[in-house]
Amino acid sequence: MRILHILDHGLPLQSGYTFRTRAILTAQAAAGHVVAAVTGPRQGASAGGIEPVDGLTFHRTSGDGTPRGLVGEITGIARFATRIAAAVTHFLPDILHAHSPALDGLAAWHVARRHGLPLLYEIRAFWEDAAVGNGTGTEGSLKYRATRTLERFVVDRADAVAVICEGLRGDLIERGVAADKIMVSPNGVDLTLFGTPAPRDAALAATLGLIDDEVIGFIGSFYPYEGLDDLIAAMPALVAARPRATLLLVGGGPAEAALRAQAAASPVAERIRFVGRVPHAEVERYYSLVDVLAYPRKAMRLTELVTPLKPLEAMAQGRLVAASDVGGHRELIRDGDTGTLFAADDPAAIATALAGLLADRSGWETRRVRGRAFVEQERNWSSNICRYDTVYQRLVEAANRKSRWSAYPART
């Protein structure tokens, strides 16, 4: 089957969004599908054209980056739709697979309707809630409500909807979307990239001064909703209980400056290390140094509904995982079995949970094995992508039946 993915942005940019996309496209190609993607205006300055990256083909939308204001967004959607249409003519897909935000789905819907192609629309998060979590939006504001309305408009017009977790599916059903229209394609790990846990990188440990430390780590993006301020606030109590405890923060993002200032003012500032962003190919080296990966997400709509990717990567690497007890984490982590859950928004609870893990290592290996097995069996992209196939086939067959009388025959 020929599948054209419609994306907000893609490789070579690095984000959880692009890593999930790469995993899907790579796994589908390995399974025998023919895949390509179109990226939108937010990819950055581009003259358009076709660009190969990591063995994948990306059709680029021309422009100078993120559209500004309402007129800019409307113009951006029009340019995106024009580029998608050109990619359809060039690639001749059987189906369009658009990924959130809803602006992508809207542009794809116009092209799908014009060409008689089926449209699967995939929601990775409700972007109005993501804006609240990022500190760039306010719940209940005009923009929040408009984004929510646009999402429903696209959902109603797509032939099928995919979501990344049960939280999003349940929320859509509560809004009145038919349950049988929604499939769950959960976050997963490409085990060809995170296949074998790396041995401890002694040279890197020496460079970072982590020789005999008990290392608590976070590897990811520094957004306010990640709760890294609570993790830093927990460090004095954790160090009091475990004097060799050190926090290693790998990544960057909007909250970085505030977090660095908070850490510098901490009475245990010498026990908090910032590494900055590292190339994705280097990430395994940092995982190898960490005893416990901590994910202290704050409790809000975004984190209650959406499952993150990073805890799965940590489990694939054979690392222990400790996380706040928000809904997105509860879908991934079984407390006391594959990981540890602690109360959200509570530095004291974080310190207690982490100190307890560091004090008793007797169950570490069992928990690591169970976490790794969970990823292999339930969150492995090589098998996850099979969930799409049944939906693709159903939609393409329906489009082909419709083409018998439609003025716009479906591609085959």
TrEMBL record:
It holds the Pfam family Glyco_trans_1_4. InterPro entries: Glyco_trans_4-like_N (IPR028098), Glycosyltransferase_grp1 (IPR050194), PEP-CTERM/XrtA_GlycosylTrfase (IPR024004). Residues 16-188 form the Glycosyltransferase subfamily 4-like N-terminal domain. NCBIfam families: stp3. This is Glycosyltransferase, exosortase A system-associated. It comes from Sphingomonas longa. The lineage of its organism: Bacteria, Pseudomonadati, Pseudomonadota, Alphaproteobacteria, Sphingomonadales.
